Amino acid sequence: MALDRRPADMERITNPELAQKFIDEQIKDIQEQVGDKKVLLALSGGVDSSVVAALLIKAIGDQLTSVHVNHGLLRKGEPEEVVEVFRNQMKSNLVYVDATDRFLDKLAGVTDPETKRHIIGNEFIEVFAEEARKLDGVEFLAQGTIWPDILESEEGIKAHHNAGGLPEDLNFKLVEPIKILYKDEVRIVGEQLGLPHGMVYRQPFPGPGLGVRCPGAITRDRLEAVRESDAILREEFAKNGLEGKVWQYFTVVPDFRSTGVKDGKRAFEWSVIIRAVNTQDAMTATVENIPFEVMTHIVDRITHEVKGVNRVLYDFTPKPTGTIEFE
Ligand code: XMP
Fold first, then answer.
1. Which atom of ligand 1 is nearest to the CA of 323?
2. Is the beta carbon of 248 within 6 A of some atom in ligand 1?
3. Ligand 1 atom closest to Cα of residue 327
4. Per-residue b/e over 91-112, b at no fewer than 16 CB within 10 Å?
5. Distance separating alpha carbons of residues 88 and 84, to the nearest angstrom
6. DSSP 8-state assignment for residue 124
7. Listed residue (202, 225, 206, 203) closest to 214, CA to CA
8. Residue range 95-115, pLDDT digits in tens
């Protein structure tokens, strides 16, 4: 029988053997719970939903359908990686929905950060529910709830919003195979399941994605500048041994231009802001000391490779007073 709560005396999963033991137990529990019924999963490509997908593929194979909604606010290469890993390599049923236009059209002209979050959250549920209705006979919804989500919602710190918002007529029963695990355990289990290291050890990424890193009204060209500069930053951090050492790092492109010069001509363009912080729990954060030479190289690449950008700034603000994200 699947456990509802983490037993107080449960041994922390710290190695591949313990991870394998957990995987074997879960496979049995999932098969027992689901029988020959169908299961649906919203697969974002984040650590938790990816590990749940990999577990379910092992346990029930074709009875799982995963839906990856590309809201157009994902990082460069992310949707492609989800398709590559789950459709091409793991041969699972993956529905890929490119909903970029829907999201960006709804977000056009919207400047308030919380309104942007609501639009993105609601639209996500709508797209996912539409896909769910296209499938016949799905009884279960799988979710990547983890133990801290349950503790935090019990303590009133944050709502555990995984299932929240789906229309009631869909009436799914929940499958939550990693709900007794801490995040570090989820990563070890993910590696044991054969997921790519980069997918399992990725930095936190907010649900509204690059949408909150394109402050003010999102435009496609500025969003592209965020995505391209973020990709360069991640590539350079990986090359220079900063990946895994810095908790979260990303770029932001605010809606203002400044005068610059490119190829001998006036260039009135955007600035990219780099943010790189370390934290234990995201409640407070300190700014990372990035070596000067690494920074100048990143500045050189971003100003030469990213369209519409003539300046790069570094955010030296700890949390508090700045939050980690800009919106
Ligand atoms: P802040 O900006 O509040 O961020 O200091 C703390 C952590 O939470 C992430 N974050 C979000 N995650 N939806 C999410 O799923 C959101 O709307 C959201 N806003 C912030 C942020 O990336 C950081 O890791």
1. 5
2. yes
3. 2
4. ebbbbbbebbebbbebbeebee
5. 5
6. H
7. 225
8. 999 999 999 999 999 999 999
